[in-house]
Structure formats: structure tokens, C-alpha cells
Amino acid sequence: MEIYVKTIDIIKAKADAVAVGVFEGEKKPAGDLAAIDKAFDGAVAGLMRRGEIKGKAGEVNYIHSLGRIAAGGVLIAGLGKKKELTADKIRSAAAVACRSLISKKNKSVAINTLAAGSSVKIEDAARAITEGAILGVYNFRVHKSKKDGNNNTELKKLTLAGVGRGDTKKAKRACEEGKITAEAACLARDMVNQPSNHMTPADMAEIAKKVAEDNCLELTIFEKEDMQKMEMGALLGVDQGSCQPPKFIILKYMGGGGKDIELALVGKGITFDSGGISLKPSNKMEEMKTDMAGGASVIAAISAIARLKLAINVVAIVPAVENLPGGKAFKPGDVLKAMNGKTIEIISTDAEGRLILADALCYANKLKAKRIVDVATLTGACVVALGYITTGVMGNNQKLIDGILAAGKETGEYMWQLPMFEEYKELNKSDVADIKNAGSGGAGTISAGQFLSEFVGKTFWAHLDIAGTSYSSKESGYTRKGATGVPVRSLVSLAAALSKKK
Ligand code: BES
Ligand code: ZN
Ligand code: ZN
After folding, report:
1. Nearest ligand to the C-alpha of residue 347?
2. E strand or H helix at 500, and its extent?
3. What is the 3-state secondary structure (H, E, C) of 164-195?
4. Which residue is closest in CA terms to ligand 1's atom 3?
5. Rounded mean pLDDT of 381-390?
6. Contact in structure between 356 and 269 (CB atoms under 8 Å)
7. Which of the four pLDDT bands, split at 50, 70 and 90, describes residue 435?
8. Separation CA 438–CA 112 (nearest Å)
9. What value, to the nearest 5°, has the Cα angle with vertex 135 and ends 147 and 167?
10. 327 to each of 242, 246, 501, how far by Cα in Å?
11. How many angstroms is it from 278 CA to the middle of ligand 1?
12. In this structure, what are the phi and psi dihedrals at residue 263, rounded to the nearest 5 degrees?
């Protein structure tokens, strides 16, 4: 999608269609909508009077322009109440507007800033519109043999119209940044939406290779023998039951100067989670192709961090493995030894994410990363606690956690911190090994977080449980059915904030 920023009037915009906003509770058309209303001889005001146009968030009304303005049609997007407008609401409105317009075969769209008269800054609106448009029209049709059909119109050109001359530079920069982050979120979506026979550990490594080549990143892939040499016994335990060779993927971006890694992003890369010998029920098991969403998100995030040329040194680490119950599979009762020498009693082979992360966290520590943020579809308990709306956040350093929470606020990716009181450590006590891999006594998300904390040492660390937020079974705003791309935009925002603080 090509994106332009222009000062031109929306009624003069030469596009297939234009999109403008309307606030809830407004009695008559204002701003650009007033100009359109005038060209339409008061028809818009009439629709507002009759209550057909209410301005509620998510509402869209389409009017054919029949030559009264330069564009072929006008879409009027509801924005909710003016006082309650946020960048995230603009992001959603832009997504709904663009989706609705491409369903009517419009390939080029001019949209105004949707923020006129509100407290949202022009650059935040510009970024939100760009992200909303890209995320909102995203489609995953790779495995559909019919390439034509109604869902297949592409939005080729988006013009942000009506930007004041003094704001053009800021708005352009924000659109460029928004495009990069939204495209990264779409890369993560593409990886997560792929079925596991098309997204094996080797496939993930191939994508990492492409990301490295495109962005001049340093790439290292450890093979099974390397993992054996490094004594990554927890990761290798999970790998035993599968025929797919495991890959340990490392991408490095050194934009900050010097040699120190300021941020390590570690992502769970289970390309399919059958549960292993502790087999999952077959109902919805197909959704476990998404168990590599954490890994996808850190690969995508580092690609955006590099494209944005952020002044920070970042490494992305993805242990990529399949969890299957093959003849050599690890079993409940087995004891594994992680890279840091800690022994783990296996209670459930379905609590495999924390095992591969244990070794990946040890490795991040070996690199002497200053901060570690891990991302994982880790526990069903997180879905019970926070549903599909909010990511669970835990960690050992409040400043880093606050940084993540702030990034979530900025991007509209909801996050909520869960407690990590010492007493929760009890839940992971084992009679036969140093620790067990499945806690007893509730708090499943926190006990998983506590388990991970055993492998980070004293390094500042935050853990994001995206079991509920990485995948959506319904469409709303800029969220499409399937992979959401959460928390790519927050990771990029965190890296940007850390790079500015230096
Ligand atoms: N991949 C799952 C967690 C998950 C559940 C992700 C639902 C997305 C949606 C994870 O590996 C798992 O199975 N966890 C177990 C842990 C338990 C055995 C301690 C769980 O949550 O049931
Ligand atoms: Zn599992
Ligand atoms: Zn899993």
C-alpha cells in the first residue's frame, strides 16, 4: 500500500473514495463533513437529523457521490464521542473504513485526519490511520486456490488529506513509522496464521534469514548438535518427540553503538503444541499452530526496530521446536537439566513452553543482555484470568514492567501486571528435582512466570503471556480473524522509548 500525506481538500481529492469522521452526539456536519454536505445539498445533515448517521464508534455509512465531489464515494466513519477520542479509536475507525471501502472495490482512498477538534495530536492520528489501514485490510489467503473473489480487492493507495502545511513533515514521518510497525505486525500475523506443516522450525529460521538479509542483521542459527554442546537439556527434552529438526534462532541489531546488548527479546517458538505425551484434547487443537506467536513477534519486532534505525542494540532469540508425542518423546516423571544446571521434573509435557524458554533465557543471560523481555503463548490460565483482550505481564523489575505497560497504552495493546510474590515459588517445588514444570495450587500464569524467573538470574526481566491475545476468533476494529500480531507494536514502542532515554 502506498501512503501519501497531502494538504489538499478532501472534496478535491482524486481517489476512488474519501473517508471522513463524524462524532457521536453532533447535531450537524462539521469540518470536512460540512463541506461534503454542502456539495450534497444538505443530504448528510438530513441523514444525521433522521438518526441514520449516529457517529457511534464502528459505524460506517457510504454515499455515492454521483459527480458532486472529485471522488466516487464518501464513507462516513463513526468515531464515538469527541471527548473520548483516542489514537486507538482512530486506528480502529480507519481500519473499519478501509475494510468497508475495499469491499466496494475502491482501490484508492483519501482520508482526513479523523481527529479535527479533538485532543489527539496530528502525528498520532497520522500514525494510527496508517496502522489501522494496513492492519484492518490484512488478509491471509495464501492457501486459497481461488485468488479472485470479493475479499480480494487490495487497497493500493491511501492519502491522508487535509493536513496543515506546518504539520506535513511530522505527519509524513509518523505515517512512515506507522507503516513499518504495522507491516511488522502483519509479518508476525503471516507466520502465526501458517499451519504447522508450513511453519516448521526450519521455516521460521528461513524467515529469520530473509529478515536478516533485508535489514542487514547478524543471524546465527544453532542446530541440534550446537544445543547439545551448550547443554540445553530442557529445550532438547521437548524436541525428542518430533521429527522436525529444532532451530535456535538469534538475530542481532546493533544500532546503538558499542557492544552491549541493551534489550534481548526472547519468543516461544513451539511450531505445534500437541501437548506431547500429556496430549491435549482434539477440540480446537488446530489452534496450537499459533504456539510460535511469541517467536514470530520478536522476529517481526526486530525487523521494525532495524527499519526504523532505532539507536539501540537488540537481540531476538527464538527457540523453535515442535511438541509431539513421538516414540522418543519425553514423558511425565522425566528429569531434564537446563543450560544453567537446574534440574526440572516433568509433571506435564504440555507445559513445554517454559522448558524451551528456560534455555533461551539462560542463553540471553550468557550474552549479558541488560534487559530481557520474553513473549509466549504460555498458559491457558492466562486466558481464564484475562480473556482474549489483555496480555499478562510479570517480571522482576518494575521499571521495565512500567516501560512495557506504557508501550501497551500507547499502542492500544492491552496489558495487565500480575503479582510475583515470593510465596508463589512454593507452587513449583519438586520432591525429586530442583523445580517442577507444572505448578500445583492455582495461579497457573504466575507459577509459569515464577518458573521462568529461575533462569533469568538478576538480569532485569519482563514476561508477557500472550496465550489469549495472540489470536482472535472474531473480527473487530483493526483485529482480523486469526493472528493479531500482538505484541509486536508494543515491543517496537518499548525499544523506541529505551533508545530515546539513553
Ligand atoms: N501452548 C499452551 C498454552 C495455550 C493455551 C496457548 C491456550 C494458547 C491458548 C501451553 O503450552 C500449555 O499447554 N500450557 C498448559 C500448562 C499446564 C499443563 C501447566 C496449560 O495452560 O494448560
Ligand atoms: Zn503445551
Ligand atoms: Zn505451548
Report:
1. 1
2. helix 488-501
3. CHHHHHHHHHHHHHHHHHHHHHHHHHHHHHCC
4. 379
5. 98
6. yes
7. very high
8. 52
9. 130
10. 9, 17, 51
11. 11
12. -145, 125
Give the length of the chain: 502
CA 438 to chain centre: 27
Q: Which ligand is nearest to the CA of 274?
A: 2
- Ligand 1 contact, 245 CB (< 6 A): no
Q: Give nearest CA residue, ligand 1 atom 7.
A: 380
CA distance 107 to 17: 8
| Residue 422 near residue 436 (C-beta atoms within 8 A) | no
pTM: 0.98
Task: Give residue-wise pLDDT tens across range 305-337.
Answer: 999 999 999 999 999 999 999 999 999 999 999
Is any ligand 1 atom within 6 A of the Cβ of residue 465?
Answer: no
| Measured distance CA(55)–CA(481) in Å, rounded | 25
CA 246 → CA 41, 80, 295, 324, 348, distances in Å?
Answer: 66, 49, 13, 12, 20
Ligand 2 centre to CA of 351 (Å) is 5
Residue 378 Cα, ligand 1 centroid: separation in angstroms? Answer: 6
Q: State residue 179's pLDDT score.
A: 98
Q: Which residues are catalytic?
A: 280, 354
CA–CA gap between residue 190 and residue 198 (Å, rounded): 11
Which atom of ligand 1 has the smallest separation from the CA of 379? 21
150 Cα–ligand 1 center, Å: 37
Q: Which three cell numbers stand for residue 410?
A: 500507547
Neighbouring-strand partners of residue 482: 472
**Angstrom distances, CA of residue 267 to CA of 238, 289, 318, 372:** 16, 15, 5, 11
Q: Which alpha helices (H) appear in 349-476, and where do they start and end?
A: 353-366, 380-386, 398-411, 444-453
**Ligand 1 pocket member 273 (CB < 6 A):** yes
What is the position in ligand 1's atom list of the atom closest to the CA of 280? 13
Which residue CA neighbors atom 16 of ligand 1 most closely?
A: 351
Check if the beta carbon of residue 427 is closer than 8 Å to that of residue 450: yes
Map grid coordinates 496450537 to a residue: 288
Report the sign of the C-alpha dihedral through residues 129, 130, 131, 132, in that order.
Answer: positive
